[in-house]
Amino acid sequence: MNTASRVVVLDAFTGGGAQADQNTSEYHFNLTESLTYLHGRHLLKSGFAIPDFSRRYFNDRTNRAGTFTFSSLDDYARGTPLSLVQQQGDGELLFLQKVFGVFIQDQITVSGRLSVTPGLRYDWQNIFVDNNNLAPRVSAAFAVNKRTVLRGGAGVFYDRAGDGAIHEVLRSRENRLQRYIILDPLYPDALGGAIADTAPRSIVVIAPDIRTPYVVQFGAGLERQLRKGSSIAITYLG
């Protein structure tokens, strides 16, 4: 393993040590439960889901010798880097990631040709908490004749934060693994253990107005049966 400092010369080359020593382990549990109830023209479905309940371990020993960044080859030749980024401290992190969701929908048979299905879903995850993730959606199907059906729908679908962002926040919050950024550092001296006494550390926090990312998706299509066991469909998705 090459533990030398990493050197990045913008628009030219990257050299030195990789310093990519890290390891992870994950143990996942997921569960889905749904209930269906038929009453008259209504087909009700509801349930809950645990798409991810996981124990995650992460040990980051990267960039311990630092990464020097140079603006140009001339700066590299003069030994005047633009910045030094270096990590120190305990890189071990263990946390639980919890993601939950509940939903309800009602497939309503309006007539022999038309059915409409409104629904609502709620999603929640720990650490990156956004408590108003209500996701409405609706779809409809209309039978033009015995062989042709028009379908359409739209809805809101929420994503969840990946574990990379969670690592950054938790490590900064616990003040165990420190990351330092020094402008115009000495080169090639990476300052070693003295860096903690000479530079403020980088801090990662969650924005107070953070929003869970989501997408609004809609689509419409035409489906026609050609013969028994065979059909063709044309669909637009936005």
Give a brief description:
The protein is mainly beta.
Give the secondary structure arrangement, pairings included.
Layout: E1 6-9, E2 13-16, E3 22-39, E4 42-60, E5 67-70, H1 73-78, E6 83-89, E7 92-109, E8 114-125, E9 134-143, E10 148-158, H2 163-174, E11 177-183, E12 201-202, E13 214-227, E14 230-237
Parallel strand pairs: 1-5
Antiparallel strand pairs: 1-2, 3-4, 4-7, 5-6, 6-11, 7-8, 8-9, 9-10, 10-13, 11-12, 13-14
Helix content: under 10%
* Largest pleated sheet: 8 strands, antiparallel
Subunit organisation of the chains: single chain
Low-pLDDT segments, ≥5 res: none
Tally of structural domains:
1
Order of helices and strands: EEEEEHEEEEEHEEEE
The tally of beta strands, per DSSP, is 14
Mean pLDDT figure: 90
Instruction: Give the strand content.
Output: over 45%
What's the gyration radius in Å?
27 Å
Main sheet: which strands, in order across? 3-4-7-8-9-10-13-14
N- to C-terminal separation? Answer: 48 Å
Q: Provide the structure class.
A: mainly beta
Shape: elongated
- Number of H/I helices: 2
